[in-house]
Design goal:
CATH topology of the largest domain: Rossmann fold
Helix content: 25-40%
CATH superfamily of the largest domain: Vaccinia Virus protein VP39
Largest sheet: 8 strands, mixed
Radius of gyration: 23 Å
Structural class: alpha/beta
Number of helices: 9
Distance between the termini: 53 Å
Strand order of the largest sheet: 2-3-1-4-8-7-5-6
Shape: elongated
Number of domains: 2
């Protein structure tokens, strides 16, 4: 079977490495997605275990179109009764980049009519549209004249792990947090600290990685569980096998935040993830923290404009640079921000730069290797 794992821009390579390690075949990187092949069982495993995928699509048809009528005719030819029944509900997510359609939603309506007419012609009944809680979620992707129709096997995006019930303003996407940690090369033999942890996304994702806890463990539902060919026995065996590989973390993970209320959110999320023994959380100002001289990784996601006044942002970045330089020599720091202008106030030369997206927000991820003394570059 062919699959498409969607991800955030900049995480394609990390996701491809995850898929290869899980045993995927014919892995191929494309923009914001990774193509791969595997059996039905692997689709279940990928949904349950992948940390950097947003959703996993299963293409069921692709064709060329020259008009709106072509979309309807080709949609009518798909054997929809292989995937759903007249009593099922469905919804269509159209992703359209084509001069044939001036309105994205219109292409979705055409395919909806084709599905309804397919069942009406065969059974005299038709499935209903339910955009809130569809039984089957269909992805329609049209680029110029090429159309691909897929089933969404995840439905609820995979970044919605299920452990985060509390969140601060502008929380980091869980997929992005996991991707940053995996990109960094951090191993659980090194201490990890997030000194601006907000609602705790980076510490929790690090804890899941360190303990080999599948990110799907906390979810109540995956889209493929409503499919006609869903095999519950196979899925239960996959979950049992993956859960049996959970282990204790050999290292402590630290998170702190200057806001006591925000830290309460983090504590609630850590508890729901079952990581109270792995993650230590404290109210603290970053400038007061110091390294204990062990091999250490720091991950910083400085607050955006919602949590800090604009005139204070440059001072914040200056403080970050000073604290890293004087208090964390010998450590490696990774900083992600959407505020490129303030980075000059850090005063340290990054070893690496990566462009990533937190939702629609373009961010830059920087790696700082912190040495004894200044090591400042002009």
């Amino acid at each position: 079977m062919r699959f498409v794992a969607k991800t955030l821009f900049g995480l394609e390579k990390v996701l491809s490495e995850e898929l290869i390690s899980l045993g995927a075949d014919n892995v191929q990187i494309v923009n914001r997605a990774v193509l791969f092949e595997g059996e039905r069982e692997f689709l279940y495993t990928a949904n349950y275990c992948l940390r950097t995928a947003l959703s996993i699509l299963v293409p069921i048809a692709d064709f060329r179109i020259r008009s709106k009528e072509d979309l309807y005719k080709s949609g009518l030819k798909i054997e929809w009764d292989r995937f759903m029944d007249p009593d099922d509900t469905f919804s269509i997510v159209p992703v359209i980049n084509s001069p044939l359609f001036g309105h994205t939603g219109y292409a979705g309506l055409i395919l909806k009519d084709a599905i309804a007419d397919y069942f009406r012609n065969k059974t005299g009944r038709r499935p209903s549209v339910d955009t809130t809680n569809p039984g089957i979620l269909i992805n329609l992707h049209i680029s110029n004249d090429k159309a691909i129709v897929s089933l969404d096997s995840s439905v609820i995006p995979l970044f919605k792990r299920g452990y985060r019930q509390e969140q601060s303003i502008a929380p980091l996407n869980e997929v992005l947090a996991a991707g940053i940690i995996l990109m960094s090369g951090w191993k659980s033999s090194a201490t990890l600290t997030d000194p601006m942890c907000g609602s705790g996304t980076i510490p929790v994702e690090a804890g899941l990685i360190a303990c080999n806890i599948p990110p799907g463990r906390f979810r109540q539902f995956f889209g493929f569980q409503r499919w006609k060919d869903f095999d519950e026995e196979i899925f239960e065996k996959i979950k049992l096998k993956c859960n049996n590989q959970i282990c204790a973390s050999p290292v402590k993970i630290f998170g702190s935040d200057i806001s006591e209320q925000t830290l309460q959110f983090a504590k609630a999320n850590v508890a729901r993830a079952g990581l109270n023994d792995v993650i230590s959380l404290d109210v603290s100002d970053f400038k007061n923290l110091k390294s204990n001289n062990d091999p250490s990784y720091l991950f910083l996601n400085p607050p955006y404009g919602q949590r800090i006044q604009p005139e204070e942002i440059d001072l914040l970045y200056s403080m970050i640079g000073t604290t890293l330089k004087h208090n964390f020599s010998g450590s490696v720091a990774w900083l992600i921000t959407s505020n490129r202008e303030s980075l000059k106030y850090v005063g340290l030369k990054p070893k690496e730069k990566h462009v990533l997206f937190n939702g629609a927000l373009e961010c830059i991820l920087l790696k700082y290797e912190l040495y004894q003394g200044s090591k400042k570059h002009d």
